[in-house]
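Notebook p. 47: complex prediction with 2'-O-acetyl adenosine-5-diphosphoribose.
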Amino acid sequence: MSEKPLLSSFDIDGLVEYIKSERCKKITFMVGAGISVSAGIPDFRSPGTGLYYTLQEYNLPDPMSIFSIDYLKENPTPFYSFQKNLIPGIYKPTPTHYFMKLIEQKNLLGTIWTQNIDGLEHLAGVPEKKIYECHGSFWTFHCLKCQRKSKLEEWRDKINKGEVLKCKSTQCLGLVKPDVVFFGENLPKKVFEDIQDKVFESDLILIIGTSLAVTPFSGFFELAARDTVRVLINREAVGTCPIRVTENGGEKIIQVNQNYQRRFFFQCPEINFRDIFLQGDCDDVIYQICDKLGWRDELDQLISQ
Ligand code: OAD
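Predicted complex, structure tokens below:
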């Protein structure tokens, strides 16, 4: 059942050896809120500190309503009072963001698929064409009624005052919403156009700082080719084993685990041939990787620029 291992070991040394090898030419990132925590932006689901645990003052029916399109139309005040905490311009990129830039400088970057709406990948200097903001962004806005498009700078002052944004056309006065993907909305079309090919051509996928709790993003890494190495860098392990073993009259039956997405082989070491889990704070793990690659000075230089 198990296949020929793609790595000499399923740990940081195995990863470093793979990155140094001829086989690793294209690295893809899939990232979530955890990579921005050290910038001062809370993630969503960490018990106690995650955003969804700290919204009591808004009296929401459910914490996730803050990003629900139906709830926004019904009661816009909570989101508009809150959005000033999220807009780009307040926070600085983290070492993990600069690591992505370093990978680009090394000509190893395929693409970055981010669930984050903080724009820190851009601020770290990664070229726009390499970044897929899967849950949208605050860079652009549109009116929900007349669809007029606008840019963040047009609204920054009102956002900072917590005002509900209304279309400037007096005939319209519709609600103006950032192009952040709310629950109940589709991901940008470009994501679906490109995801399959870009993931399939990756030699290495680094999945960092995400609970992989939100579809369809949580399933994107499973589009990887069979010979793509996949690495999760996170505070805790997520996902399940790709196979399910059941017994029928003493006979072992091995089936593909289809009940659940987010299947990682590190969850079942006996058949692992491709996946690594590196547990910890992502910046610490990134520093360790860079130390072992001999890239630490270059990373520090990018951070200090
Ligand atoms: P979550 O808050 O669900 O998950 C963040 C993950 O990062 C958790 O597993 C944390 O343990 C881990 N983590 C936190 N700090 C870390 C650190 N310094 N180093 C490593 N790991 C760390 O955030 P996402 O998975 O990004 O959607 O959430 C996905 C989507 O859910 C978001 O994009 C958002 C939300 O609803 C929208 O806003 C549309």
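Notes: Residues 189-200 form the longest helix (12 residues). The two ends are 49 Å apart (CA to CA).
Next step: compare against the earlier run before touching the bench.
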